Structure formats: C-alpha cells, structure tokens
Amino acid sequence: MPPTNLLLDKTAIVTGGTTGIGRAITLAFLAQGCNVAVLHLALPSDASHVATLLSQASSLPGHLALLPGDVRDPATGPALVTFALSSFPARGRLDILVSNAGICAFTPLLDITAPLYQDTVRTNLDGAFYVVQAAARQMALHQTPSGGSIIALSSVSALVGGGMQCHYTPTKAGVLSLMQSAAVALGGYGVRCNALLPGTVRTQLNGEDLEDEGKRRYMEGRIPLGRIGEPGDVAGPAVFLACDELSGYVTGAQVLVDGGLFVNLQ
C-alpha cells in the first residue's frame, strides 16, 4: 500500500488539471488529502472531462475547486491564487503550485506559422511565468523552512531536439530554466522550485500520433522500460516534490520521468 495523507489539508493549484498529466496529478493530490484548485480553459470539448473529474474527486479525501481561465492572460495567475485561498480558507495560504498547462502541435519547422509559434510560447512559457510569479508572491508571505513547493512541467524535449517541435522545445527548455532561476530567487523564502521532465506519455496531445502502430513501436523500442508512459506515472514524482517530508531538501532539480528514454537516445 502506498503511503497516505502526505499532503493532508494542504492547498494546491494545478493548471490544466482536467486532462492528461495535470488530471493525474490532481487526483493523486486529492487522494493524499490535499485541497486542489484547478484552472482549465472551459472549452466545450472539456465538459465531459470536468464532469468525470468531479465524479472521481467526490470519493477522495481532498476537496476540488474548478476555475475557468487562460494562463496566457497575466491577470489569471493572481486571480487563481485568490480563488484557491478563498475556496479553502481554513489553510490561509498556498502550499503547492503545479504549472502544467501547455500545448504542442507537432509541425515541421518550415510550416510553423507566426500565430502557432506565438501561441505556443504564450501558453507554455509566458503562462508558466505568470502563474509561478503569482504563487511565489503568496508563498513568500510565509517565510518558513517549508515555504512552499513550485513544480513546473517541462519535458525531456528540453534536453534534446525534435524535428517536429521547433516551436515547442524552446518553451520547455525555458520552463526548466525558469525553475532553476526561481529556486535561487526563492530559496531564502523556503520555497522549493523543481521541474518534472516527462518523456513520451500518452495524453490528448499525442494520442493521435501514437495510434500509428509503427511510430508507437519505434518509441517503445527506444524506451528501456519498454512502454509508453501513462499520466499516472508522472503523478507519483509530483507528490514526492510537493511533500516537504519527502523532498524538503530538493530544489532546482530536474526529474526525468521518461522510462529511461533520455539516457538511451542514440
């Protein structure tokens, strides 16, 4: 049996928490007794994901609150922090941020349009900065040895090239760099900042690509553990980084969650 109550009564924010990796992290936090405020875009296609998330959350010890919003808007970060604190007032502070919201439209370099490039940067990098800064400002008000944990979803793509990801890989490298610099900037406040670097994980972003049996087998052949990752594979490491008792001396780190893909790239 895995340990329980690792995040009991803490308050967390997860952006992009209704689908994919963000959803898995949200459910894992709720299962550990954490109260989670989730930001989502509220697209029509997201309605069923929201409904099933609410249903799953109802049987877990933590409490869930949902806020529609767009990380690309600089005002969203502060509004999200305010929403989290008002949704779970008993705690009176923000303990954890998971900056997860992101997009990736696989596109050849020569076909990347200015709007696609700008949207990718605004969502993946600008959006991460805005929510990280807003969370950090709140966490800095409680200057303690365990001032808070900020976790940003980068990618193994931050460390390697991708021919169909020339607009995407720079943003994930930027997220990794943001966490490294934030770790230095916020260490004096007791705030830990770390990056998770998933490898190939089956989500709505790459589901269609992985339906190609040839591509899937090729990827599986490059992964030492021999399988494509699932969103839940990233949730455990997120709980580890969120928990002061487990990772209280971990900051500025990059945690690969890729089945060994990076060390086997050749």
UniProtKB/TrEMBL annotation:
- Family annotation (Pfam families): adh_short_C2
**SUPFAM superfamilies for this protein:** NAD(P)-binding Rossmann-fold domains
UniProt keywords, alphabetically: NADP, Oxidoreductase, Rhamnose metabolism
**InterPro entries on file:** NAD(P)-bd_dom_sf, SDR_fam
Q: Which GO terms describe its molecular function?
A: oxidoreductase activity, acting on the CH-OH group of donors, NAD or NADP as acceptor; quinone binding
Classification via Gene3D superfamilies: NAD(P)-binding Rossmann-like Domain
What are the recorded Gene Ontology BP terms? fatty acid biosynthetic process; rhamnose catabolic process
**Keyword check for Oxidoreductase:** yes
Q: Which family does it belong to?
A: Belongs to the short-chain dehydrogenases/reductases (SDR) family.
Indicate what this protein is called per its UniProt record.
Uncharacterized protein
